[in-house]
Amino acid sequence: MAGNTPFPYFKQSEHRGGQQDALVMHWPNDIKSKGEIRNQYHHISDIAPTIMEAAGIERPDEYHGIKQQPFTGVSMNYSFDNADAPNAKKRQYYEMFGNRAIWEDGWKAVTLHANRMPWDVNIVKPFEEDVWELYHVAEDFSESTDLAAEYPEKLEELEKIFEEEAWANQVYPLYDDMLARLNAVNYVIFGDKKVFTYYAPGAVRIAEKASVPVKGRSHTIETTIDLKGNEEGVIVSCGGMTGGYTMYIKGGKLHFDYNFLDGVHYHLTSPKLPSGSTDLKFNFILDRSKIDGTLKPWSGTGELFVNGEKVDDDYFEMMHISTYSLAENFDVGMDSGTQVDKAYEGSPFAFTGTLDKVVVTLTD
Fold it and tell me: 61 pLDDT band (50/70/90 cuts)?
């Protein structure tokens, strides 16, 4: 929060604490001004028009037979050598997760939908109940004084402009069910796909969001390995020290560890593994009796199998709703980021045996 000072709020909000970013322009062969600051109001949508103008390129109406959408931004080039140039941009709309704002000629109307904080993902309320605020940002840089009560006509005017811009730029329909949106991402990416096969070597450093969507789903993770007796290392992992899961062999035993926020670990261990062709499987059964529409971690039973025989199980009381980490990976044959389980030290703890593939099946 302190990093957003002096602006109100933070990421996701459409107050300036969720919008303001610095931008450095460097073009020594053309920009004559050096080390100066520009205060004209601009938006990320203005970057592409700026680059196109600098390169002397016209935006095509059609590209490879496909009609192109028009730019919604304006070039910033006019300000490069003229600090006092009038602002070329006249208005800009904003919307994220139901939070909305509109800026026009130094005035800004903004609403924090349902007064919801970024961590309040289980709040759904009618948009018409939102309270709009009004700021004269040309004079009130930090949005410190709400003028809605003093200038109701101006606020009404800006709300109408937001409606115009929102309809013109495909903002509607608004949708604020965060849990449903988070869950829907899996179906947008993968549809009704149930079986995911990952081959080794090669299936490494796959982004978590692009890997098999096991969160909140009953599933199995299975592989068959011709064991010699001296193998160790990660068979499959996703996530890292902040959370995730890993299946690995260490000390001649099969391990499965589920890491919930680096505070709770659910750990399954097999007896000493046999030699020869051996089927290794983790099975998770989601506890649907705990699903009641409220925001809370998933729960369920984890089971570990060797050659079809259950060798360990445990109830996983708390499991991630959406994301293990913002920067960790899904890997087969190693754990390429920070380790999910501290029981194996160092990274990548690569598998030393011969690993062909890992098959993950969604069973719900």
Answer: very high
Among candidate residues 141, 176, 211, the one where a domain is terminated: 176
Partners of 268 in the β-ladder: 256
- In which band, very low, low, confident or very high, does the pLDDT at 294 lie, cut at 50, 70 and 90? low
Q: What single DSSP character describes residue 210?
A: G
Residue length, the chain? Answer: 364
Q: At which residue do the structure tokens 């100066």 appear? A: 36
The token pair at 33 is: 């001004």
Number of domains in the chain: 2
Residues 6+ apart with CB under 8 A from 144: 6, 8
Domain of 261, in residue numbers: 183-362
Question: Cα dihedral sign for 161, 168, 14, 215?
Answer: positive
Sequence-separated (6 or more) residues with CB below 8 Å from residue 2: none
CATH of residue 59: 3.30.1120.10
Model pLDDT, residue 293 = 67
Dihedral sign (CA 159, 162, 167, 168): positive
Residue 296: its pLDDT value, please?
A: 73
